[in-house]
Specification:
By secondary structure, the chain is an alpha/beta fold. The protein is built from 7 helices and 7 strands; from the N terminus they run H-E-H-E-H-H-E-E-H-E-H-E-E-H. Helix content is 32%, strand content 11%. Helix 2 links the parallel strand 1 and strand 2.
């Protein structure tokens, strides 16, 4: 991935990376081009909530301190796992000096513009964040002009009241069978029809009732106005 990233960035005018490919910052340093980072989850320290990979400690006396320290703890731990190969690559390919155990990516990117692709209506922007951290609202793929909904899906939507849409996008699950059974039980108990968007979550079920339709993916801007909550619109 490091070699592919270096090759792909040759001749570029700017680099936009996601947190897992933070080495884009090293490439930008070598090429002398602007760098931006795009993230789906808050990564900068905050007293209001912990980093999303750590559990919340609501009501704990030291909650705000715990929240704030959870960020550097995770960042530093993650950096120790990758520091060896990153430093080797920096020296052998980029001809740059190695980085110390304390030079984790987010610390080095303290002045980098961040684009946080979630809504302030869901996670309010902390007041103390510096101005280069931008909460942009959600991002949506543009639907291909030649896309057509599967005939079976159109028939399902027209065969009864608007269903509930259940999906987990790129979130994987250790027990997809159990998660699927839980979703089906919730639909049955509430008397709702449902659409299961399996995505990467692996939601699968061998025998679905006639009131449930399953598929991997469908453009949200096409589907959401037709499911429960017809007033849906993108939240910015």
């Amino acid at each position: 991935m490091l070699a592919d990233s270096w090759e792909a960035c040759q001749g570029t005018e700017a680099i936009v990376a996601v947190p897992f490919t933070f080495w884009g910052y090293d490439i930008a340093e070598k090429l002398g081009v602007p760098f931006y980072l795009a993230a789906l989850l808050p990564l900068h320290a905050c007293q209001d909530f912990p980093i999303p990979t750590m559990p919340a400690m609501g009501g704990w006396p030291w909650e705000s301190l715990y929240n704030q320290l959870s960020y550097p703890l995770i960042h530093l731990s993650f950096w120790q796992l990758l520091r060896g190969p990153i430093n080797q690559w920096r020296q052998s390919t980029l001809n740059l000096p190695p980085l110390s155990p304390c030079q984790e990516p987010l610390t080095r990117m303290e002045r980098v513009p961040f684009l946080y692709a979630y809504s302030r209506a869901i996670v309010p922007r902390p007041a103390h964040w510096p101005p280069q951290l931008h909460v942009t609202g959600y991002w949506f793929w543009e639907r291909p002009s030649d896309w057509k909904a599967p005939r079976e899906l159109v028939e399902f939507l027209g065969a009864g009241p608007p269903p509930v849409c259940i999906g987990f996008g790129s979130m994987q699950n250790r027990d997809p069978q159990r998660m699927t059974a839980l979703a089906l039980a919730a639909l049955a108990q509430t008397g709702q029809r449902g659409i299961l968007l399996t995505g990467w979550g692996g939601l699968i079920h061998g025998h679905l009732p006639d009131t449930v339709f399953q598929l991997d993916y469908v453009p949200h801007d096409w589907l959401f106005p037709q499911v429960v909550g017809m007033g849906w619109r993108p939240v910015r």
